[in-house]
Amino acid sequence: MKQVSYDGIGQVMATFPAALDSQGADKVTEGAPVKMGAAGTVDLCGDGDAFIGVAMTVRDGCAGVQVRGFVTLPASGSIATGLVTLAANGSGGVKQVSSGGTAYLVAESNGGSVTILL
Q1: HSE, side-chain direction, 13 A CA sphere, residue 68
Q2: Do residues 16 and 65 make contact, with C-beta atoms less than 8 angstroms apart?
Q3: pLDDT at residue 2, as a whole number
Q4: Measured at the alpha carbon of residue 97, what is the angle toward residues 93 and 100, in degrees to the nearest 5?
Q5: SS3 assignment, position 40
Q6: What is the domain partition of the chain in residue ranges?
Q7: What is the pTM of this model?
Q8: Strands, sheet with 82-88, edge to edge from the N-terminal-most edge strand
Q9: How many angstroms separate the most distant Cα atoms in the chain?
Q10: Residue 12, CB half-sphere, CA atoms under 13 Å: how many?
């Protein structure tokens, strides 16, 4: 049984305009890592992209992005705990990389998800 919770610790949210698809609909999805896009928007990350935060809410062309604090994300591959270089995996989660990502503190890793400090 899990005895420790990181929920809400140090959480800082910022609102950004969200990238739109070719039909004008929100392109960003809730719970996915995001990067800075064109003209100050946030956009979905592709495989190997460094990310600035996680889209927590998306509505009416805006995204509420968690830019600081602990957050849990889907993970692909084996990710160690400790200070680890991560990048987006292109599928709404993250993966450990040797170059091209950003170093994050990984507090928990259970194979299918990781809890990191942004």
Answers
A1: 6
A2: yes
A3: 66
A4: 100
A5: helix
A6: 12-68, 70-117
A7: 0.92
A8: 70-74, 113-117, 102-109, 82-88, 94-96
A9: 46
A10: 8
Distance of CA 52 to the CA centre of its chain: 7
Q: Which two tokens stand for residue 69?
A: 């604090």
User: So what's the pLDDT on residue 8?
Assistant: 87
Task: Please work out, in degrees rounded to the nearest 5, the angle formed at the alpha carbon of residue 63 by the alpha carbons of 61 and 65.
Answer: 170
Q: Which residues pair with 105 in a beta bridge?
A: 83, 117
pLDDT in tens, 94-111: 999 999 899 999 999 998
**How far is CA 6 from each of CA 17, 57, 78, 108, rounded to the nearest angstrom?**
28, 19, 21, 10
Residue-wise pLDDT tens digits, 34-64:
999 988 999 999 999 999 999 999 999 999 9
